[in-house]
TrEMBL record:
Record carries keyword Transmembrane helix: yes
Protein name: DUF1624 domain-containing protein
Signal peptide, first to last residue: none
Superkingdom, taxonomy of origin: Bacteria
Domain Heparan-alpha-glucosaminide N-acetyltransferase catalytic stretches: 7-158
Transmembrane segments: 12-29, 51-69, 81-103, 115-132, 139-156, 194-215, 227-246, 252-276, 288-310, 339-357
Organism: Spirosoma foliorum
Keyword Transmembrane helix: yes
Pfam family, one: HGSNAT_cat
Keywords: Membrane, Transmembrane, Transmembrane helix
Length: 365
């Protein structure tokens, strides 16, 4: 039997702060004025914003290990677990489709991929893997997937280009999207959450499951922290050196990107776990816990609020433009004005998150 820890406040807080960071990055006051590190890297490279999505998928993996190890120990029938996993994945995917269709619900021009879609797929595959494989098999599956993806992207020529290319819209992943991905693509001729790049994103979830397995092990809390930090450091370093030949790239979700971001997430989890759960320094975690309690619900509400705010006109301008313009006219740097609006928007989203938390309403998709 696996040792079951008490609920990890650190993981709850980390989940909530990750969602909050995602909202800040997704909804600046002005797309024109954004600090570099709050933008997604155009192609190769890594910014703060590029770390957010893989960190959330890593947390999904950790949560799978913590939740389903307990269910297996309780003797829950696998058939019932499979049913719940599939239903939850379909619900998350459906909500993603709803957001993609807003506000016009033009089914002829719908996008079939997105953040929630990828979360749904990663959760589905990783949960099934967790229930049917041990940690060593999961590690091998993850490693072989990353190597296979690397070889495919760097050795198989793009059919309509006639050579191996890793540039935007010309690589093998883009060609597969154009050939097989239905509907509209985010970048016209390719999609950052397309078919081929979904495979290494699943490995991000697997790395989270491996970290979750370690959190369930019968070792002392300080040993858990030490191994998380050490494994994270070596994983990130391996990703960096792999990136010299297969660049760190979020749009392609390259193998090096998986290792660098998973290494960062492991070190972050180790640090937050040490501060919060080991040392008991819980001050400052409440905001993250409240957002994390209904993480996907908050993410959905942010999309809805953003649409409403854009349609509300103040002096002929949407609310975000009105606020940013006013702050710039008051003498603030444009990027700072845009960031302050994003923080104000986080405050707006905190209100329903807080009300749900206070009433102990936890919407589990």
């Amino acid at each position: 039997m696996i040792q079951q820890p008490s609920r990890l406040i650190s993981l709850d807080a980390m989940r909530g702060f990750t969602i909050a960071a995602m909202i800040v990055a997704n909804f600046p006051g002005s797309e024109e004025f954004v600090y570099f590190t709050l933008r997604h890297t155009i192609w190769n490279g890594l910014s703060f914003t590029d770390l957010i999505a893989p960190t959330f998928l890593f947390i999904v993996g950790v949560s799978i290990a913590l939740a389903y190890a307990r269910k297996v120990d309780e003797g829950s029938p696998k058939g019932e677990l499979y049913r719940k996993i599939v239903i939850r994945s379909l619900k998350i995917f459906a909500v993603g489709m709803f957001l993609n269709l807003m506000p016009d619900f033009d089914f002829s021009n719908v996008r079939w991929t997105g953040t929630l879609h990828r979360i749904a797929i990663v959760f589905l595959v990783c949960a099934f893997l967790f229930l049917n494989t041990n940690w060593k098999q999961q590690a091998w599956i993850g490693a072989l997937t990353l190597v296979a993806y690397w070889l495919a992207m760097t050795q198989i020529p793009t059919p309509d280009v006639g050579k191996v290319v890793l540039e935007r819209g010309q690589n093998l992943a883009a060609w597969i999207d154009r050939k097989y991905l239905p509907g509209r693509m985010w970048q016209g001729t390719w999609d950052p959450e397309g078919i081929l790049s979904t495979f290494p994103s699943i490995v991000t979830g697997i790395t989270g499951m491996l970290a979750g397995r370690w959190m369930l092990s019968r070792v002392s809390p300080t040993e858990k922290v030490s191994y998380l930090m050490t494994a994270g450091l070596f994983t990130a370093a391996a990703g960096y050196f792999w990136g010299l030949t297969f660049p760190v790239n979020e749009n392609l979700w390259t193998s090096s990107f998986v290792l660098v971001t998973s290494g960062f997430a492991a070190m972050l989890l180790g640090a937050v776990y040490f501060l919060v759960d080991v040392l008991g320094r819980k001050k400052g975690t409440k905001l993250g816990i409240i957002f994390g309690a209904n993480a996907i619900t908050v993410y959905v509400l942010a999309d809805i609020f953003a649409l409403l705010f854009y349609r509300l006109k103040f002096g002929g301008l949407p609310l975000n433009e009105k606020v940013v313009t006013g702050l710039i006219n008051a003498g603030l740097q444009p990027e700072l004005a845009s960031l302050l609006y994003a923080l104000f928007f986080i405050g707006i989203n905190f209100i329903p998150a807080y009300l749900l938390y206070q009433r102990k309403i936890f919407i589990k998709l």
